[in-house]
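Structure first, sequence second, as always.
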């Protein structure tokens, strides 16, 4: 396969030459850098590249090219390369272009902007392009798997494993036991026992628990000490923030998480409203940054092991971990989030992991390429799931009981712009059916009472409204440390 293309269009041959040279220096080993002074001829060349089956990762355009604006050109490249990232160039002092670009950014016509200069590329050009290419590569290129899972395609346990690994940002390969590759892998490792089989570095784990997998990957499952200043229960955004602030205040801090870091936020395909990430950040990515930050400040983590009990014993709290190990702390912060109701509709429970997914279904999205998908809910999680799934599914239908969407405006705009997302207001899922996996849904019109049976590959229950959001959870975590200090009498 030829290298993916980075295509730059600019009216000024000098700027074009120096931008291309800068991009070539940093990204030339993995990408092919192409340039053109004319958007019309650039479009023709992109059409030819598309016919040859070549991939384009990033298109960059000067907003003031002579034949059409950069934003218009970028919009036209979308039909050829819908997954390519889009970036517009604006000159210093060009207030008119800045105003146009600001509108383009707000409407989601373009992913980001760069200043039309190649001075100091280390400051903005390289970091922005690296981030964009990293995201493009994660979404479109096969990742080298660390773990291989072989199981029945629609087994609930393998769905749980895929979900866990996705949230923990661990690359994995999944193979249907009946596929040639699945059979070959099982033969190679000599496994004829129960499934799922999880293969890591030639070693097979038979139907492993989450902790078995964490252990084999080198995660900590036992605390280092018997007594901590602070134990944080739960590693969602609130728990992570508590750990960062606790550890930075010098408290010996342990975080205990029954699954993996990130909590609900870890299931989010793209968080756009958290401070400091202008191009958005995947929930799992944000969580792993926060964990790294907490660890670098001295916090300790135990994952895949829940807290089963908590008792007062004089000035200390006794925390019982799953498996009955007890540890002590001078203070405990409980940041265990919420758990949500499931969709109580006939048939739905039978297909969890077999076409019915809760949350944003990030791990499952690629499996629904070319198939119709239904998302239930009107809030932010539903919007994020729909936008994410629309990149793979033939059509995404959002089923909304009420008459309006309750999600953030940026998601409403993204949905309106999408060609393959439709919304059905005043409807609800009345029944799910299938054989080995979900095949049809009955969608009921809540006004007329009429029911329509529709084919469906996946359906995700996503609630109408997130109770607080990441920012509030992080703020709670930070504030909790103040209360901890007051409680410990150290203020
Ligand atoms: C799909 C989706 C998309 C979202 N998108 C956004 C968004 O774009 N922007 C935004 O602001 N918000 C978003 N949210 C909401 C946001 O994720 C939540 O508000 C936030 O995660 C709440 O943080 P928390 O730490 O309080 O709880 P949680 O995230 O629920 O974390 C609690 C953690 O505690 C652990 N835990 C529970 N019990 C125990 C126990 N006994 N022992 C050990 N650990 C335990 C859980 O496993 C979990 O990891 C989204 C939510 C979802 C589901």
């Amino acid at each position: 396969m030829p290298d993916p293309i980075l295509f730059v269009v600019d009216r000024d041959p000098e700027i074009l030459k120096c931008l291309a040279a800068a991009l070539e220096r940093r990204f030339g080993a993995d990408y092919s850098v192409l340039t053109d002074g004319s958007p019309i001829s650039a479009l023709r060349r992109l059409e030819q590249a598309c016919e040859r089956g070549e991939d384009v990762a990033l298109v960059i355009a000067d907003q003031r090219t002579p034949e059409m604006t950069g934003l218009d050109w970028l919009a036209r490249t979308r039909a050829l390369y819908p997954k390519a990232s889009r970036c517009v160039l604006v000159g210093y002092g060009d207030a008119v272009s800045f105003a146009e670009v600001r509108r383009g950014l707000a409407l989601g016509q373009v992913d980001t902007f760069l200043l039309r200069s190649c001075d100091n590329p280390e400051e903005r050009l390289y970091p922005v392009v690296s981030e964009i290419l990293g995201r493009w590569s994660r979404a479109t290129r096969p990742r080298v798997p660390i773990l291989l899972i072989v199981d029945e395609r629609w087994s609930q346990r393998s769905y749980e494993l895929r979900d866990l690994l996705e949230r923990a940002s661990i690359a994995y390969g999944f193979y249907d036991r009946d596929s040639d590759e699945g059979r070959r892998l099982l033969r190679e490792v000599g496994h004829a026992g129960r499934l799922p089989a999880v293969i890591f570095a030639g070693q097979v784990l038979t139907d492993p628990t989450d902790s078995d997998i964490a252990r084999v990957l080198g995660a900590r499952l036992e605390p280092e000490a018997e007594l901590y200043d602070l134990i944080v229960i739960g590693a969602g955004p609130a728990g992570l923030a508590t750990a960062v602030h606790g550890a930075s205040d010098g408290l010996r801090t342990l975080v205990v998480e029954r699954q993996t870091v990130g909590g609900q936020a870890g299931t989010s395909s793209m968080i756009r409203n958290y401070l400091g990430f202008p191009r958005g950040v995947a929930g799992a990515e944000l969580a792993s940054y926060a964990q790294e930050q907490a660890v670098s400040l001295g916090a300790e983590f135990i994952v895949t092991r829940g807290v089963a009990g908590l008792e007062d014993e004089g000035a200390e709290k006794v925390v019982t971990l799953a498996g009955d190990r007890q540890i002590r702390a001078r203070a405990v912060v409980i940041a265990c989030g919420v758990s949500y109701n499931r969709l109580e509709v006939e048939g739905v429970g039978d297909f969890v992991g077999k076409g019915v997914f809760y949350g944003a279904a990030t791990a499952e999205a690629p499996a629904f390429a070319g198939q119709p998908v239904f998302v239930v809910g009107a809030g932010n999680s539903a919007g994020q799931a729909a936008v994410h799934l629309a990149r793979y599914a033939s059509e995404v239908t959002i089923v909304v009981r009420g008459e309006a969407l309750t999600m953030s405006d940026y998601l409403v705009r993204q949905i309106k712009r999408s060609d393959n997302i439709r919304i059905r207001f005043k409807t609800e899922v009345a029944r799910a059916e299938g054989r080995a996996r979900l095949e049809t849904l009955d969608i009921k019109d809540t006004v007329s009472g009429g029911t329509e049976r529709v084919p469906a590959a996946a359906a995700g229950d996503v609630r109408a409204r997130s109770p607080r959001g990441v920012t509030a959870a992080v703020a709670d975590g930070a504030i909790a440390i103040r209360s901890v200090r007051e409680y410990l009498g150290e203020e």
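Margin note: The domain at 147-216 is CATH 3.40.30.10 (Glutaredoxin).
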